[in-house]
Structures are given as C-alpha cells and as structure tokens.
Amino acid sequence: MAQSKALAKFWITTTEQLQNVLEHERRMQTVAPTKDVRLVHRLVSDLYCRYTQLCRSLERCFDQTLQVQKRAVVQRLLETAQARLLEFGTKLKDIELSEFVYVDGTLQEQHLIPDDVQAVRPCFFPAKRAAELQSLIVGRSLASFGEAGSESNEDSDSEIEAQEEELMPLPTVMKRPVEQRDRRKERLQAALTLITAHEKARQARVRQTNFRLHPDQYYPKPIDEEIEDVPYEFSYRPGRPMLYPVKRTVFNWDFQKKKRNVVDFAYYSPPGWEESVPAVSSQAEKMNTVLRSNAKEEDKSAEKAAEEATRREEAKELIGLNRAATKIQRCWRTYRFNKAQRRMRYERSKFLGLFDDYEPNLQAAHAVEEVHAARSERKMEFDQAFLAAIADEKARILRTRGPAILEDITEFVRAWFRQWYDEAHAFDVIPEPFQGGTVLIVRGETLTPMEYLEQERLKRLAKLMSPAQKKKEAEARKAAREREQEKKRAEKERLREQAREKRAREKKEGKTYDFTEPEFVSNAYLTLEETFERYRKDWAFVSELENLYDLPVMEWITLEKFAEVHQELHGEVHELLKTERELLQMALCKDERMKYKPPKPKKPPRVRGPKGKKRKETVDPTADRSVESIVDELVERNVIKSYRRRTLEEFIGDFNYAAFERRNRLEQDPPPALGEIRSILRSYLFGMGPLLVPKPKSLCLLAPPGSGKTLLLEAICHETDSVLFDLSVDSCGPIERTNMPYFLQLVLRAARLLQPSVIAIEDVHRAFYKKVPPPEQSLDPTKLGTYLFKLLVKQLSPDDKVLLVGTSSQPWLAKVGPMKKCFEKMLLLPRCDYGSTVLLWRYALGRFPTVPRDLDVSALAKVTTRYSAGQILRCTAEVLTIRRRMQFGRKPLQVQELLDHLLATPDGTPQYPVTDKEYEKFAKWHRKVDKLAKQRAKLTRDRQLAAEQPKAKSGAGASK
C-alpha cells in the first residue's frame, strides 16, 4: 500500500511536469516565424531536454503502474512523448546537419548535466515474446556469434576474447569441470593424519623426558670446539612506546648443550653428584678474612679506575644509542610525512575526479531494484484479474440485460418496418453488417420513407425523358466531373508551385521557420495533448490515492461491455429480422400482384492501396512451413546464433564538452566523441521495445578495426533481448544464388515470428563488392546484396520489431548506391580523443584488482590518444600477465611498461594508431552516403571560402 501511495504521488508530479511541457509547446507556437537558426535551435533544444526528463518519469510510471486502465493511459502518453522526443532530436540534427547534436546552452539554463539528457535504456525493456516461441530458442545449443568469421573480422572484441576470459565474471566464462569427491578416502586420510600427529607428539615428549632424567645416556658426545651461548636480551629506551610488540624472554640455555656446562645451573644436579664441604679451622678462617680485607683495600683504587672507565664506556654507548634512536626517529617521521603527503594527494585527486575510486553501498539500491522488479512482475497477475472481471461483467450483462436488449432492438426494427409500410407502402433493405447493420436503423442513419419516395419519383421522371435529354444530362454530369477534376489539378499545381517557390526562396534567402506548421505541430503533439486532456476529464472524479489495491473502475467496464453486448446482439437480430423482412416483402408483392425480386447480396469492399489501386497480395513461399521446421533449418545452417551478454555501457567513451562552443559560436566542425554513440544507438532502439515508437529499419556501423563494432552489435542484441540472425557472407556461402530468395524469405518470417530480432551482417561491404577478390569468388558474396533490399529491407514494416545491423571496416570496396539503399542510417564511429583514452586506460587497468587505482595515466593517454580500444585492451592483457601481477609487491607497475609494449611488441614491430589519412577514407566515403554529412561538409567549405575572401582582398590592396 505504501508503494501504491508513493507511486500515486509520483504520478501527480509527472502530470504537472507534462502540463508544464505542453505549456512550453503552446508558448513556442506563438513565436513569430524567423530565420534565426540559433533561436530555433535554442527553442527546440529546450523542449528536447524537457521531453527527455518527461519520458524518464513516464517510463517509471508505466513500469510500476498495476492498475490496468491507468496503465493504458500512461502507455499512450509515453508512446507519444517518445515519438515527440525523436521528432525534436531529428529537427536538431537537421539544424546542425549532423547525427551528433549538442544542447549545452539549454543544460546551463536548466541547471542540468549531460547525463540528464542522454538516452537511457527504458525500464520496460525488453519486449517479452510468447512462451512457446521462447522455448524454441532456449532449449537449443547455438553457435557463438563471430566464430565463423574470426579470421576475416579484425574487430578487437574477437581478438582479445581469450585474453579477457580470466577476467570475465561467471557465467560468461566457461566453468571449471566438477570433479567427483571420494568422501570415504578423505575421511581415512584425515584419520591417518591425526594419528600420525599424536604419535610424533608422544615421541617428542618421551625424548625430552629422557634428556632431562638421563643426560649421560642421551646427550651427544662433546665436540672439540667450545659452544658459547649467545643470550638474547631485549632492551628499549624508557618512556617510549615500542614500535612492535616483542616477547620479553631470555633464551640462554639449550637442553642439548654439552654435559660440562649443565652443572652451571643450581637447580639441576646430575645423577650421583654429592656436594662435599671440607672442614676448616677457625684460625684459618680468621687469616683468610684478614687477607681478603687487605686485598680489598689494595684493589680499591683499581676498582675506582675501572668504574671510571666503565662510566666512560657507558657514556659512549649512551651517545651511540641516542644517535641511533635519533636516526630511527628521523626515518620514521620522514616515512610518516611521506605517507601523509601521498594520502593527501590521493584525496585531492579523488575530489577533483581524476579517477573513480567510489565504492558505493549497493545494498539499498539492490533492495529498491528488487522491490521495483517484484512490483513490475505482478502486471501479469493484474492483467489476468482484469480480463476475468471483464468476462464476469459481460456474462452478467448478458444474463441480466441480454433478453431485454434483444427485445428492445427487435421491437425498434419492427416499428421501423411499420413506419415504412404506413408512409411509403414498401420495406427498405436492412444494411449489411459491414455497413453497420441494424445499428444504423437505431441511430436513424438510414434512408427515410420521404427520401425513398423522392428517389422513386426521380426514377420515373428519368424513364420519361427523351434520348436527347438523357444525353444532355449525362454530358452535364461529365462536364461537372471534369470541372471538379480540373479544379483539383489546378489546386495541386498551385501547391506544387508554392513549394517550388518556397524552396527557391529558402535556397536564396535562407529557410524560414514557422512554428505553426506541421513540422513543429505534428500528430504526436496533437495526440499527446488530446490524450492528456481526456485523462483529466475521465479521471477527475477518481481518487487515485485511495485506490491502494489498484482495483479497476468497474463503471467503465460496465459501459464498455454494455456497448459490446449491444453490438453482438445487433448481429443476432440482423439475421432474424432479415428473414422476417423478406417474408413481409413477399407478402406485399403478392398483395400488389407484383413480381418478387430477392435483393442481391452485397459484398464488402476490397481493400485498396494508398493510391486507390488494388493491393497486390504477395505470395509467401514459406507458408507451408511450420515454425519448428524453420527454426530447425536456420539453427542447422548456423544462422541463428548466441551472443555474449554485453551492454552499451561497456562501450567506454567520454563526451566532447567543447563541441557546443566550437560549433555554435566559433562556427567550426568539431569531431564527435565516443560517448555520444551510446545515446544515438539507444534512440534508435526505442522502437524495439513493447511500445509503438518510430525506429529505423536498418543501421550500418563504420569504423576501423578494433573500434568496438562487434561489441555494439552484441549490446544491441542483449539490451533488446533479440534473437540474432547471422547473415554474413560466410554464413550465406553454402547457399546457391537461385535459392537466396527463398532463404531470405525464411529468415524474414522467422525474424517476424521471434521478434524482437536483429539481422546482423558483419563486413557488409563484401556483399556489395565492386570487384570480388579472387580468394572469395567461390563464395559468390554479391548474391546476398542482390536480393537484400528487395526481399528483406523493403518487406519490413514500421511495426516490425526487426532491425538490420551491418558493420564494415572497408566500406570503400563496396558499391555506394546499393549499399546506401539498404541502410537508412550510416553511423561513422569517431576516433578516441584524450578523455575517452583516459577512461579506456582506467577501465583496462581496473579489471585487474591489484593495480593501484591512483596510477597516473594522464601522460600515457596524451601519447596514445589515437589508439583504438582494441589496442589498449590488448596491451594491458599482454603486459599484466599473472607472473607480472605477482611481482607488484616488490616491483610496482610503471606507466612506462605499457608505453614500451605499444612501441615495441614482443615480435619487435611497434603498434601505430589509425592515421589521419586512413580515417579520412572513412569520412570521405561517409559523406557520399549520409545526406547530413554531405550538407555539413558543403557548409564548412562555404564558411572557409567566406573567411578567405577578405584576406585575399586585403592582400590585393596591399600589393597595389
């Protein structure tokens, strides 16, 4: 209940946000037509950012709303809002003449960051397919994508897959085989180890006791050299805490030392030892006492000298100890200071964002995600309960109100029969069901008796007319039709001439932007406003905060089912009363002595095409095939393949933060950054979800080898949970050219049945070769390009969740026209700039847990700016081997090692980045196939010429 109340409050906030966006739309429509492109860019980018925030809020509401009737409203709002967002994105691309658009000015006005307006993966992704279709794919062993063409494909992902395998988390890496454990053998081995330990301990105790009680038998023979004991003493300076805890024990005796030294201890007497004291007389004792006293007096001076020498030695020793302590303290304080400095530099770099060492506590976030996922999974439960409520309500209406409704309809139609007989003495034909049936009679939309009598009068008059009059009437009608057609042609020609004049005027004076034209006030905006207004009227009297259990509104279900029951009963009444009308007509003809003519049955009109022509039904050659047989054949041909679980977030790259100023203020053409590719691809994938959102039919990724094209392709498949169909040249090689049309129809039908689906073609330029290389002539690669557009791309409808994705690393080898025709979007991946290179190095090094996170890679990134992601990942995988990582304790990692590996690989050949000349080949070919790129290049040339003209004039004036 708490979740329902919180979601209701969030929905109220979202409706206020939607109302605010619509108010901005209305305010934009009041702006006068203008030619200022910057003003138009500012207004459109403002609404683009607002719609981005609105779509994120509507996504969350749609994902968490359980009330079925309200979810339908939210879904409609979300579909139209996303369509409107894509329209504004397309308008920005047309204004900036580039697929890469920048709205930094609006971000500053609305206090947002670039991540706030980036396209994200919708929370309702992916679209779920039926369980019986999903079971066709889950239970099969599929070949991995990229295995067949690994030699011809030079992408970085397939090259370093084996080196990254040890770093990838399970279950992406193959697990180690499980070994069977022998529990009985392990228990016996543990028991044997325990018994052996106890036996060794017993023998040690016996040996020690024997050494103590019988040293003459068990001690070894004395050795020649004298064994001197080196006592261990512990001393420390008083008043100072110890650096390390040390055990204060004096070890000065070994129980295995020589026998002659054992008697030095008073507490031990060898066996058989008897101490005998000789008897001494008292006189002798006195003499000894006198001698000793004299000796003491004589040695007093010597003792004083010895004490003085001892004091000097102690003073020297104390001075040495003080010096040693001072040196130790100096070293310790230096170590402490350096450690504090390193910590301070680390904290400062972390604060400035030079590296990401944030370790968030994800427990709360995971708990919230689990709650959201659990609530989202309950949608099916509420849908089933809603369908059950609809069925029960319909059954109740049929049971309680059905007979009365049937009687009312019958009585009304019979009264209509009576009216016709009384006023026209005839019976009109009941309309057919496809025309409306008896519903038209109840509504009063049929022919009245007076109109029928007038038509009959005109028919009688027409029979009395002479042939000349009939010819004159026909000519008048024909002339009227011709005048109407001429009027339409003139109007069409006038509109065409206006459009021609408008294009010429825009070419000469510049385009004029009118915010009231359909390009700004589109159907998506009208639908969004209409849906929101209908929601406000329908839900004005529904308290959403009180509906804590998300129960449906039964009044609306009753009204809807009541109308449906009416419609169904009208169909039943139609057959009954049609027979009754025929009986009445037969009786009337018999009374009037007229010949009865049964009415001719009317056929429903045939569906015609958009231009009024009859739609030509295409013949499907695979109609006799079942879904299981189609999937089996494609799996056997290795067309349906599995792929790695990857996301677009794994495509590492930063944004170009200076592009807005350079493009809009300095009138330059800045290169895009890698991070902007993610947002563009996600905007293309909105239509692959469960909602009806516009999307392109086909997409082609162009980039040098190692740029991550395969990663992006697999990320597209994983984020949309699509079935991957591999139509590369190697997969289509065994198929004959005559069988290609049937094979493509097979793939198209399977892709539609298992949608969402992605049809992937790696190295697509091979299918459109200008000249086929001799080694590939046996494959006949151009047979795929011959039928690709006609039998695959052209057959896709906007509602199909099928996307054709191609990749190419040598597009200049292909024919421009056919390849451009097959792909709606041609996306050229940019090269790595400094920001993206820094992120790539940190990601590559961050995969190894023992590498320090504060490693300075700034200079390394500056040197390796143009290197591809594949080269960087391969470098780290080859340098940071297991042996090198084990040496980190005594030999820390240096940045120089990574640079040296790039400059001198193990085979002695250095690695070079993609040069400007090589990348210019991609850009030149891309300008041929992309309309926006061609226009952008023309605009850049015009600006350069305009900037060079004043310099040329000034130079000519100076020469004169």
UniProtKB/TrEMBL annotation:
<dbReference type="InterPro" id="IPR052267">
    <property type="entry name" value="N-DRC_Component"/>
</dbReference>
<dbReference type="InterPro" id="IPR027417">
    <property type="entry name" value="P-loop_NTPase"/>
</dbReference>
<feature type="compositionally biased region" description="Basic and acidic residues">
    <location>
        <begin position="470"/>
        <end position="509"/>
    </location>
</feature>
<feature type="region of interest" description="Disordered">
    <location>
        <begin position="594"/>
        <end position="623"/>
    </location>
</feature>
<protein>
    <submittedName>
        <fullName>ATPase_AAA_core domain-containing protein</fullName>
    </submittedName>
</protein>
<dbReference type="GO" id="GO:0005524">
    <property type="term" value="F:ATP binding"/>
</dbReference>
<dbReference type="GO" id="GO:0016887">
    <property type="term" value="F:ATP hydrolysis activity"/>
</dbReference>
<dbReference type="InterPro" id="IPR003959">
    <property type="entry name" value="ATPase_AAA_core"/>
</dbReference>
<dbReference type="Pfam" id="PF00004">
    <property type="entry name" value="AAA"/>
</dbReference>
<feature type="region of interest" description="Disordered">
    <location>
        <begin position="466"/>
        <end position="509"/>
    </location>
</feature>
<feature type="domain" description="ATPase AAA-type core">
    <location>
        <begin position="699"/>
        <end position="813"/>
    </location>
</feature>
<feature type="region of interest" description="Disordered">
    <location>
        <begin position="940"/>
        <end position="960"/>
    </location>
</feature>
<feature type="compositionally biased region" description="Basic residues">
    <location>
        <begin position="596"/>
        <end position="616"/>
    </location>
</feature>
